[in-house]
Design goal:
Distance between the termini: 29 Å
Largest sheet: 6 strands, mixed
Helix content: 40-55%
Strand order of the largest sheet: 2-4-1-5-6-7
Order of helices and strands: EHEHEEHEHHHEHEHHHEEHHEHHEE
Shape: flat
Structural class: alpha/beta
Oligomer: single chain
Number of helices: 14
Radius of gyration: 23 Å
Strand content: 15-25%
Amino acid sequence: MKVGIVGLPNVGKSTLFNCLSQSKAQSENYPFCTIDPNVSIVNVPDKRLDALNKLISPEKLIPTTVKIVDIAGLVKGASKGEGLGNKFLSNIRETDAIIHVLRCFDDPNVVHVDGKINPLSDREVVEYELIMKDIEIVDKRLDKVKKTLRSGGNEAKKEIEVLERVKLSLESTKVNLDDYSEDEFKDFIKPLELISFKPILYVCNVGESDVVNGNDYVEMVKKEVHDKSSDVIIISAKIESEINELDSLDEKQMFLDDLGLEESGSNKLIRASYKLLNLHSYFTAGEKEVRGWTIKIGDSAYDAAGQIHTDFQKGFICAEVISYNDYIELGSELKVKEAGKIRLEGKEYIVSDGDIMHFRFNI
């Protein structure tokens, strides 16, 4: 599962990527600085894991992770191959969710590809090109299915009906997953990897003075996307870059305190990306290792067991489950057992965020 960072050239994508990943992706003041996508696997900040680490003092602490991809900037005409359009659109189709970075700061020293600051028009440029590429993909599939209509029978007719509805929704820029059944999406839409159907998070990149309360540009974005089930977060890539230059956690916290921030924007964005991918965590906890495991929201204990090892899944007997709050309140697994707070759950149990689990299995 990976999330792609997109936007026009020079909006702060690569600077933000560097802050998220502690890497050194090229970040310069000119369009198309990024050509090939930069990829990084980053730890997901989780205070619960830190609390378990303090209680247990394990030999190893392993957090959950998310894959972040910094993709080349897009310009008008990308769907027709302008700029790095075809390469950009191919890369973004391979991601599972999108972080759309919008420039919400004024700085005459940082050029804008269109010569003016307007996050709404920036957003329209990017999303129009994504939609046009999706329409092209749907048209190609429709042509192919229509040619096999006689041999395909009812299945082909159903696919044509669904894809024609998809095309209409793309043309009207009103894409809504709720308009399609689970089977329609799984059988006909998901295989096409349409970009417009991916979940999206808008990141408003602001100057230092606006990082707490935002500015007029941010309000414009919030007003524009409030009915799209998309979140908006405020980050200053410049501030994040300065935080990255500090050596100690204490220095970083003092810097954040001076700005009136509880945590870095990078941490906030990583967690938001995790949520955007419809993921949450469960934990395994012991003296050798405290570890976070990534699963989809709604996954079962059987699914969770498979994340550790296929043998756990094949020979699944049951899962011993402790709620995170019970573990923290009582202070150890032994005390949780004495209090009768360990539950035995079967394959169908839906894992809750933060569950501490131990699997019984037999191969």
